[in-house]
Amino acid sequence: MIRVVLPAHLKMLANVSGEVEVDVAGTPSPASVIDALEAHFPMLLGTIRDPVTQQRRRFVRFYACEKDLSLEPIDVTLPEDVQRGREPFFVIGAMAGG
Amino acid sequence: MSGVRVLVGTRKGAFVLRADGTRKNWDVSGPFFGGWEVFHVKGSPVDPNRIYASQSTSWFGQLIQRSDDGGLTWNPVGNQFLYDGVPGTHQWYDGTPHPWEFARVWHLEPSLSDPDTVWAGVEDAALFRSVDGGMNWSELSGLRGHDTGSAWQPGAGGMCLHTIIVSPKDPRRIFVAISSAGAFRSDDEGTTWRPINHGLHSEGLPDEDAEVGHCVHRIALHPSNPDVLYMQKHWDVMRSDNAGDSWSEVSGNLPSDFGFAIDVHAHEPETVYVIPITSDSEHFPPEGKLRVYRSRSGGNEWEPLANGLPQEHCYVDVLRDAMAVDTLDDCGVYFGTTGGQVYGSANSGDSWEPIVRDLPAVLSVEVQTLA
């Protein structure tokens, strides 16, 4: 079970509050966590990854265990603390005004 | 009792304004999708409970929301807007080829006959259609694939397809407008297209009478006479009497013929409304006076309508999709501003009252007239 913290806009869209938890088959990565998120919350399809390129949207960041994983390959293995549920995987809306 | 529902898209969410036929007391609900840009909200003419909304942000992309209960509750539907085939390129601002990239949906146009059919005009400019209530979208790629497509360029606001009109008399005929490619018409349900820009004259173009490249801001027509089109171009208010085959200028005595919004009275096909804006660099009303201009002669002769509108220190803009009319006996006219006001007139524009004053910047206004 992977714990995921979504940004406020996506929590509203998914009708959730607080963290969400998703089951991920195999070795967890940002890609597989998002696959699981989209399967569980279909309204999130296309909001974290571009639907055509499947790449992270440019104003979305991925954090875990105080590290920015955004520029890592999207199939990079998540830290063990995230895999074991001790730490959440963060989906972040990049800071910007407006 | 009859009533109206005004659907407002703003920079930070959507709002629904409801009133009975007197249009005096308004119930305001929203924001829906708070914090998201809502470029357009529009209801089905055949099922007023069916409403579509375009919701987007630069962070999380595009969503389409659908309501089946008149805007009380909403559910996201399909948001996959995939260009047909290899997208190819259009011209970028510097004249270099630039790949077509989907950015957002500017305009949603529900079918006049089927609540599950809806067209979407998107940036980068293309036309999509859904026939299943917005769940799945397919591009009508004959438009983007027109011989001129690779030469289209974005305007300052992006290369957006912002106007979609299906002829009430012939559902095979569709008009669209693109900033800044111009106006196009299909006579075969969107399969093939041709530019309809003859008579447009744009000083910003090397060839001022070019076939494409004109920054058309908005087109409107009256359902009883769909061969007569009215256009607010970047500069110039234009009219066509032959479904866009040719255009002539009808700016007449307007204080400025720059503007974005244009619409037609519900019961008087020759009564047209525009909201002049000072210039392409000064996006506010001339002299700081917010005035709608009405022509009862299909253009050229315009009268200012200012009763109830601010006549000093007003420096808001009214965007292209932010004016609409209802179809009650005494036609209602509505528009929203970038200052967050939505004004309504229950007497064809003779007098105005603010319905709300402090919304986020208004991007679009549509009206449903309810039985």
Largest interface: A-B, 20 and 16 residues
Largest sheet of chain B: 4 strands, antiparallel
Radius of gyration of chain A: 12 Å
Unreliable stretches of chain B, pLDDT < 50, 5 or more residues?
none
Q: What topology, given as strand order, has the largest sheet of chain A?
A: 2-1-5-3-4
The CATH architecture classification of the domain at 79-337 in chain B is 7 Propeller
Cα distance, first to last residue of chain B? 7 Å
The main sheet of chain A comes to:
5 strands, mixed
Helices of chain A, by number, come to 3
Whole-number count of domains of chain A = 1
Number of helical elements of chain B: 0
Give the CATH topology of chain A.
Ubiquitin-like (UB roll)
Structural class of chain A: alpha+beta
Key features of this structure:
heterodimer; A: 98 residues; alpha+beta; Ubiquitin-like (UB roll); five-stranded mixed sheet; 5 strands; globular; B: 371 residues; mainly beta; Methylamine Dehydrogenase, Chain H; four-stranded antiparallel sheet; 0% helix
What does this protein look like?
The complex is a heterodimer of chains A (98) and B (371). Chain A has one domain (2-93): Beta-grasp domain (Ubiquitin-like (UB roll), Roll), CATH 3.10.20. In chain A, 22% of the residues lie in helices and 19% in strands. Chain A contains three helices and five strands. Chain A has helices spanning 8-14, 30-40, 80-83, and strands at 2-5, 20-22, 60-64, 67-68, 89-93. A five-stranded mixed sheet of chain A has the order 2-1-5-3-4, with helices on one face. Chain B has 371 residues and is mostly beta strands. Chain B has a domain at 79-337: YVTN repeat-like/Quinoprotein amine dehydrogenase (Methylamine Dehydrogenase, Chain H, 7 Propeller). In chain B, 0% of the residues lie in helices and 39% in strands. In chain B, the strands form eight sheets. Chain B has a four-stranded antiparallel sheet with strand order 3-2-1-30, with no helix packed on it. A four-stranded antiparallel sheet of chain B has the order 4-5-6-7, with no helix packed on it. Chain B has a four-stranded antiparallel sheet with strand order 10-11-12-13, with no helix packed on it. In chain B, a hairpin with a 7-residue loop joins strand 18 and strand 19 (229-233). The radius of gyration of chain B is 19 Å and the shape is globular. The chains are: A alpha+beta (98), B mainly beta (371). Chain A binds chain B through residues 7-10, 12-13, 43, 45-48, 50-52, 57, 59-60, 93-94, 96, and chain B through 33-36, 57-63, 76, 79-80, 82, 102.
